[in-house]
Amino acid sequence: MSEGFALSVIVPVWNEADGITATLKALQDIRAAGHEVLVVDAGSPDGTADLARPLCDRLVVSEKGRAAQMNAGASEARGNVFLFLHADTRLPPSALADLDRFFHSRRSWGRFDVRLSGGRFLFRVIGWFMNRRSRLTGVCTGDQALFVRRALFEDLGGFEPIPLMEDVEFSSRLARRSRPFCVSAPVVTDSRRWEHLGPWRTIFLMWRLRWRYWRGESPETLSLSYRTDVRNARH
């Protein structure tokens, strides 16, 4: 890696005991290369913190909420590039080299393409549309492992403390500063949410929420609606 490049991977977690060990073991090469991994737990009652502690550089305790947790992690981070990684997402083998290229580019932020883990052909189609939408709009979601230079993150004040759409809101602000640095090697995100609710039902829920968000509904209202929709979809 090039001199001067220092990466902080920030992983917000809540009740991730079933998968956090595998997630963090996949990041050990990044730590071995001299970069850091921070896990931000919001008081998970399932033992997530105990499992994460020996496999990360710092375990940060935060109030619950992905935006608050990611901001808390960034406040403790030492790197000059922040990467925000969901606990159910895996980086590609080329991630460090891709991020090093970003560091030496003129872009201020970026994201990876995404692929869903499930074997169904429909999941490949969904991933293609997610990536295509992101390239057209310059906006991304948290599943795409957003990364940003520390200076810009601090200049923008980090994520808005909202209960939903924090990734879309933040990347919309980032896109006004520069186009994203797009990495075509995909991160792989767990398709369990799509499998539990059904892919078509999940697509409908997500697009309806985004449409309502762009029409100006508050993230608080959308968060309540999302929780209700998910509960109803499971019955």
Describe the structure.
With 235 residues, the protein is of the alpha/beta class. It has 2 domains: 7-190, Spore Coat Polysaccharide Biosynthesis Protein SpsA, Chain A (Alpha-Beta Complex); 191-235, no CATH class. Helices cover 46% and strands 18% of the residues. The chain has helices at residues 20-25, 28-32, 48-52, 66-76, 95-103, 121-137, 150-156, 166-175, 192-197, 199-214, 219-233, and strands at residues 7-13, 36-41, 58-61, 81-84, 89-90, 109-116, 147-149, 181-189. It has an 8-stranded mixed beta sheet with strand order 3-2-1-4-7-6-8-5. Strand 2 (36-41), helix 3 and strand 3 (58-61) form a beta-alpha-beta unit. Helix 10 runs antiparallel to helix 11. The protein is globular and about 45 Å long. The mean pLDDT is 88.
Known CATH architecture of the largest domain: Alpha-Beta Complex
Distance between the termini: 50 Å
Q: Would you give the CATH topology of the largest domain?
A: Spore Coat Polysaccharide Biosynthesis Protein SpsA, Chain A
Question: Main beta sheet, described?
Answer: 8 strands, mixed
> Structural class of the secondary elements?
alpha/beta
Strand count: 8
Unreliable residue stretches:
none
Quote the beta fraction: 15-25%
> CATH superfamily of the largest domain, called what?
Spore Coat Polysaccharide Biosynthesis Protein SpsA, Chain A
Report the mean per-residue pLDDT as an integer. 88
Gyration radius, in Å: 17 Å
Helical stretch tally: 11
